[in-house]
Amino acid sequence: MSLTKINSSAATLTKNRTEDSIIPTSGMCATCVDGCIGMCEIGKSAYRGVEAIYPQPFGIITSAGEKAYPVDYSHFSIMGTCVGAKGIEQDSDKAIFPNVNLGVKIGQDKGIKLKLPLIIPGLGSTKVAKINWDGLAIGAALAGVPLTIGENVCGMDSDSEIKNGRIVRAPDLERRIRLYKEWQQDGHGEIILQANIEDTRLGVQEYGIEKLGINVVELKWGQGAKDIGGEVKIENLERAQLLKKRGYVVLPNPLDKDVIEAFNRGAFKEFERHSRVGMVEEEGFLKRAEELRKAGAKYVFLKTGAYRPADLARAVKYASKAKIDLLTVDGAGGGTGMSPWRMMNEWGVPPVELHSLLYQYVDKLAKKGEYVPDIAVAGGFTLEDQIFKGLSLGAPYVKLVGMARAPLAAAMVGKTIGKKIDVGEVPVYIERFGTTKEEIFVTAADLKKEIGTRFNNVPPGALGLYTYYQRISQGLKQLMAGNRKFGLEHITRDDISALTKESAEISGISYIMDADKEEAEKILNS
Q: Containing domain of residue 445, as a range?
């Protein structure tokens, strides 16, 4: 049976005609009939061409690959114990899960303090990120979780001002940074400014550091969802022409008179804007990290994607040489944007394999006495059990788990509930909890007590994200207390066991039937 749904998916708004009889290798219907209108991906490609490459409806969804990888984090089980406690006194009245400490400090000087071991990786110029930014920024700031402003925000802002090829004013970027900073609590969390090739050419990070008070910048090699640059769709000719003039790759060429004529007569309805692919080189990378520090950046991060193992080794080694403060490694299949659908499913190293290689590489450097940056892992994480496993598999080097699609979902749900409250149309499924945001959002009372009258200005999207994080927090505390680990620094690789021989071989985590074997023998023979 195929591991991927090929030739039809809800993500591309396609389906097979013979849904009960599909050829596993091709995804085609067992009988392809002359006269079919073409509901499958092949058929849709016959009349919409490149539009069928991308998930749809473009711009208002998030998407991630459907491929069922041979090994994933569900192939590991969390090991509890009934003995002892680490990080707290061995007293049943004190070793209770509310006393688990989820705070963590990252960076070379450990100067970035977080309330939770989480980070939201780059959310950039996609429409879905922009229209949900209020909820994301305020919710993350209230929760003490760092948030990354992703690529192309300045270049995509029609109101940005560019002089001599450099950004001198960027209203959308200014707003995104201001929103997060205004809602930060006791200095927890951080707003991070990421840059790709186009951003670097525009001087976006220097602008952010010098004019907008940015302390943390992130260099971007790529992401787990795709191995090319970011892309968005443009439905306005003038906007497409502006982006082309700003140096972006725009298809078809909006400055070509034949293309303009075809667009105006309705032959096609949207342009594609693409970013360029990077050309990683050690000397240039080290130089850029130093340039950013000289420009005033207090912390420099690196995010890389699901590239081949040699590229992961480069990321680890270069991050060590450049004394990078945080390295984020994003496994294949994830993504919040609009990556080419087949690419999202069929390229890159999956999360468990990638994170296992990551552990091997950083452990090798650590044993040689070389600098190892703090590490974040990403790629399809959503809830506390997966977060615990990610921290455990990479312990002691992995400090954070990156999640973007799940937090965005929480913010979108919160926003939608808020809209329903405003028009007095709360769905029955939600109405059983109440009809106001104070009644529906279970964290409202405590948050109102904590921030006072400012609560009235918290958008429902932010409440959704904040409440989701509260659930993650308590769930993670419960799992850690079950392992008798009362601080994140006490999590180790033997806090999980592999459920299959294959997952054990890939990860280096003990197969469950081999776990504690020596200790068990000693107990039995004592």
A: 410-482
